[in-house]
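seq:
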Amino acid sequence: MSFHARHWQHRLDELRAEYHVPGASLAVLAGGALHEMASGMLNTATGVEVTPDSVFLSGSTAKIYTASLIMQLVDAGKLDLDTPVVGVLPEFATPDPEATRQITVRQLLSHTGGVTNDFNHDSGRGDDCLARYVEAARGVPLDCPPGTSYSYGSLGYVVLGRLVETLTGTTWDQALDEMLFQPLGLERSMTLPEQALRFRVAMGHTAGRNPEPAPVWDMMPRSAGPYGRIITSAGDVARLATMFLDGGVTPDGIRLLSEEAVATMQRPQVASPDKWTMSADSWGLGPALYDWNGVTGFGHDGSAVTQHSYLRVVPSAGVVIVLLCNGGEFGKLYADLVGELLAETAGVQMPPPFAPATSPPAVDMTALVGTYRRGGVEITISESDGRARIRYEFIDGMKHYSPPIETDLTAVSPSVFAATGGPSGEDYTPVVFGSLADGTPCVYVSMRATPKVG
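struct:
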């Protein structure tokens, strides 16, 4: 298959401008060759242009890197996926002693451990930041009982990062460099801002049609590293993904992961109740898993508040697509550009962007109305004069994080609704109603399970 780089450079330039994205970087592996492209500006205030070797904050795509480290330790016989975390990391705890004894490494990797996503604790800049975070997290309530349901939880990836430190005797940052970055030749991948200053670095911008430079470059603490703080180029993300296509082997023949580990990471562990927020049909051990009408793939999305990443891999076609953006209507750029690329290179038809139907179905809201609560978040569903509403509010230690958000709900199906707007400039946010394994009603917003309490 021939890849027409000039055409795709033109489409990147055209769509980036149409959707007001200040800057973007694109890497595509197709036909055995890696193509790297760039468009726009790293920072609209300085006018510095994006180049293929520019680096961006990749957000939650970092979870695939941490999962890879864990699987390397499993390959080495230092860890078992079904070992309770507390057996390896005695300082790990939750407010529920029984749950603490139950939570396994596999559950944290697959977001089925019940731990939350909303514990944004700054534990400092020192090498002990993960240890201090895990200590502080001991009092954070679970979203749901472990092993019962899917609930996206970044806290669990900090715990996994701390497991890496305990079993390697070094920091997560250093382990990542020695176990992945160096063997794969990822020369533009790093975890700390002082390392990034050697390169052309993207500045984040606000979302929407009139993006402005963010007030600060990086809003996340160092302890966010294992779940969301890898600074990298699009090409380097593609090189990591290529290692999975090659069965865990580097281009120069060094085996980093066993073939079984690579297969296990891509094996479905749990179905995704929310199939729109990250487009995932199910979750493996680290990556999101996709089923495009029988064509399977894996990847991840990432948001570092003002910078965003998309990784899509189609093993059957040998295709990897990586898109990094720094603001604007980045979701629309992804939908159009990556959708076209997947169709052209892998014969994949992505589903349309999430939105309600022109004529929404009538839904009886009686069983859905009420209060839903998890640690740090309270969600209220109400209905008045046939108009459904959602109020999303941070509470307790998170109450100063953001003011409450209230918006209308439009039915997509009896259990799926579209909330007008979204935290990153989306037209609509999925709100999915379901139940935990014990029958407790819950609602999923941004893939987090929030149980009904009243």
